[in-house]
Design goal:
The chain is of the alpha/beta class. The protein contains 15 helices and ten strands.
């Protein structure tokens, strides 16, 4: 296992991926500030290449490989956004990508991986099946593995969004919040935040229907058998080993929201921010609204994780 990434690793990642990524915008909304009682700054990774923050970590991992490693191709497993991100990064580097996906993946996310040239391999919709499929593909191809969250290179890449957020806000934040699933984004966020200003707290947002990360930190051990029946298809993985180690040190807490609260927050983001977000990206606002006692009066940087969803199946239709 790679050593835990630190702020230096995040800074190196930022320099490495600078030619390829977009420096995403921040948005504010006076009406959402009034509704939440907070000062919110939304870091819009739904505007990132492939429509999600995942491109940062995938790009860092793929471009950190030497030429001989990269030439054999890249293998990953994904519920959607990471697979598309690895496929696009591999395409930019001119090497093959093999992506193992659950057979219930959103059609738009499958199509994105295919569009970027990936060889897509189906599996059953469980983490065990995804991991087994990735292992089998690695054995068949000899390609280099890029895990969606249990990979120090991926975590460092995800942390670059927070570096940008600090630059764009001049560090005037009390809290940085991100969704948590496998924990790559939240642990990268924690490393970057801790490295920039230890006074700023890092909070995770998680669906109550998939709250393994909250339970894992509360119990001091990874909970890997939590059933995940959430609309947030990008938040159904269980917390990884490396993220668990990082978040055990640098996360102030993880709070949850119900499915109805997540859908309501998603609609609010469409209406007030005028942007397309997927349910996984709305869980942060849902948590802020659901727990005013934790967040009221705070200046909060919110990582908007992605905007890939099937527009023919919006949850309020």
């Amino acid at each position: 296992m790679n050593p835990l990434p630190d702020i230096h690793a995040v800074e190196i990642a930022a320099a490495r991926i600078a030619p390829w990524i977009r420096r995403t915008e921040i948005l504010r909304s006076a009406s959402l500030d009034a509704l939440t009682g907070c000062s919110l700054v939304f870091k819009c990774e739904n505007f990132q290449r492939v429509g999600a923050f995942k491109f940062r970590g995938a790009c860092n991992a793929v471009f950190s490989l030497d030429d001989a490693q990269a030439a054999r191709g890249i293998v990953t497993q994904s519920s959607g956004n990471h697979g598309a991100a690895v496929a696009r990064a591999a395409q930019l580097r001119g090497v093959p990508a093999y992506v193992v996906v659950p057979n219930d993946i959103a059609a738009t996310k499958r199509e994105a991986a295919v569009r970027y040239g990936a060889h897509v391999i189906d599996c059953e919709p469980t983490m065990a099946a995804r991991s087994a499929g990735m292992a089998a593909t690695l054995a068949q191809t000899g390609a280099a593995p890029v895990h969606p969250f249990d990979d120090a290179r991926v975590i460092a890449g995800q942390g670059t969004a927070t570096l940008e957020l600090f630059e764009q806000t001049s560090g005037a934040l009390d809290i940085v919040m991100a969704p948590v699933s496998g924990g790559g984004l939240l642990s990268g966020t924690a490393i970057a935040t801790y490295g920039r200003d230890r006074r700023v707290a890092v909070w995770g947002a998680e669906p109550a229907a998939a709250a393994d990360a909250q339970a894992s930190l509360a119990q001091g051990r990874r909970i890997t058998d939590w059933p995940s029946a959430t609309i947030c298809d990008g938040l159904r993985a269980t917390l990884g080993e490396i993220p668990f180690d990082i978040l055990s040190r640098h996360c102030a807490g993880i709070a949850t929201a119900t499915e109805d609260q997540i859908i309501a927050a998603m609609r609010l983001m469409f209406e007030r921010l005028k942007i397309v977000v997927e349910p996984s990206a709305a869980v942060t606002l849902a948590v802020i609204l659901a727990h005013p006692e934790l967040f009221e009066g705070k200046r909060i940087g919110v990582i908007v994780s992605g905007g890939n969803l099937d527009l023919d199946r919006l949850p309020w239709q």
